[in-house]
């Protein structure tokens, strides 16, 4: 980031961060940028799949909490960041053709077509900040790793061609703070909400907690219980199985910084 | 209802109520039936409008809280009442052709087409029960009237062809209970959630509180403040303006009794 320090970027407004991303001056992960503002995942599909995908998200709100949907052909997320452009304002994108990763780019303007629909999906950054604000440790942040994510045996509710198991993220929580972790994250249904499972990984089909399907393993200390939240990787994984002609997502960790404050998604 | 007393129906299971409705033995309003279970409003549209309407609801969740969407061509609300049939299990339907009321019927099987999509939308019965359980009076129930509803100057977020102002329902609440009314109803974002306005009707474009646009006027006593919630009439009113070739809705007060308990929609 050259002369731009992370502390400086943490204190920037969302539109300032997006301007730097758009100019190519920020190309890395967005964690910690424009502190207090919600960041969003991205799935772009052609309009012919948009109804089924929106329906899938509507039926599976815990893994797929929709924050904004662009009008077909419009790159503007008019509710969450009306002066943003989803073609340029994520630091990095993944381009999938028929379900296979075809390219990773920092700008998708040249790929944009007028029947594309962008789905912005809530991400766990929002509730992790709430956990930290409540004195609940977030291990993968402490250990500077990616959150561990696992395929489960929990089926999503299908919608048309979209179907598949839920992916969850795991955070070890001291047993005496597990109830508070449920309360804190339940306030934020728009960003995955309360956990889907507490305790035994086997119950939800995870055979080896030390070897996550995505992300990195983290330390589970004595006296800690694994707590599982529905994960925003789910809709991408499910969409990938449909093998759409073209699908574009953000690269992991490279999100859109929206104009909405995390607390604005709090229910009470 | 012949030999079926209302008290008896209040204690029935949802599937028992639906069976009586399907057989034509119940054709009246469903208020008070299968107590504790959520009732749902209905909008049926052809698939070509389904994406835009679902997007409209997604963007306007307070007036348009989606509980379930049927697969195109399927009359089964698989999430909220998997053994129900939306063609027969509402006591009464309204059929709109190009935005005009064309018919009111008790069964729409003969109108059903294989590109139809049914949207079940949360209704205020759920949060009214929560208000009553908290000792907050609900005036229109006390006065045995329909809830008063008003057009406002609050614009909905448009989606494609769907746009228009929010319709709100009003309940007078004793000033000292207004905060509790906000708390109680905020627990239920799936059924309109917290109020959209408290106090002066003029602020939201209502010029005469004694003459509602839909439903009946109710008494506002000294020391009471009018509290306004987003109303499920909004999506019907908005859809009507689009003048779809065919739209079918429930008749006011004649809802589907689902298998989901009211409390299951509570956030914490």
Automatic annotation (TrEMBL), chains A, B:
InterPro entries: D-Glu_cyclase (IPR009906), Putative_hydro-lyase (IPR038021), UPF0317 (IPR016938). It is an enzyme of class 4 (lyase). Its EC number is 4.2.1.-. The keyword Cell wall biogenesis/degradation does not apply. Pfam families: D-Glu_cyclase. The keyword Lyase applies. It comes from the Bacteria. Keywords: Lyase. NCBIfam families: PRK05463.1 (NF003969). Belongs to the D-glutamate cyclase family. This is Putative hydro-lyase BTA31_11945. It comes from Bacillus haynesii. The lineage of its organism: Bacteria, Bacillati, Bacillota, Bacilli, Bacillales.
């Amino acid at each position: 980031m050259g002369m731009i320090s992370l502390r400086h970027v943490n204190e920037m407004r969302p539109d300032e961060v997006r301007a730097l991303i758009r100019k190519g001056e920020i190309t890395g992960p967005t964690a910690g940028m424009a502190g207090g503002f919600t960041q969003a995942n991205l799935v772009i599909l052609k309009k012919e799949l948009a109804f089924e995908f929106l329906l899938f998200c509507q039926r599976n709100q815990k893994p797929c909490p929709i924050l904004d949907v662009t009008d077909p052909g419009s790159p503007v997320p008019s509710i969450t960041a009306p002066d943003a452009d989803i073609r340029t304002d994520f630091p990095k994108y993944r381009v999938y053709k028929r379900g296979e990763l075809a390219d990773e780019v920092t700008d998708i303007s040249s790929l944009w077509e007028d029947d594309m629909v962008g789905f912005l999906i809530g991400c766990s950054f929002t509730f992790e900040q709430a956990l930290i604000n409540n004195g609940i440790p977030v291990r993968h942040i402490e250990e500077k790793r990616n959150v561990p994510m696992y395929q489960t045996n929990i089926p999503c509710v299908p919608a048309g061609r979209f179907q598949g198991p839920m992916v969850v993220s795991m955070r070890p929580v001291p047993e005496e703070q597990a109830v508070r972790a449920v309360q804190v994250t339940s306030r934020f249904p728009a960003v995955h909400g309360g956990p889907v499972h507490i305790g035994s990984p086997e119950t939800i089909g995870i055979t080896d907690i030390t070897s996550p399907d995505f992300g990195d393993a983290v330390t589970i200390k004595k006296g800690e219980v694994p707590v599982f939240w529905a994960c925003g990787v789910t809709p991408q994984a499910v969409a990938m199985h449909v093998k759409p002609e073209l699908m574009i997502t953000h690269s992991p960790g490279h999100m859109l910084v929206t104009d909405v404050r995390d607390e604005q998604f709090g229910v009470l």
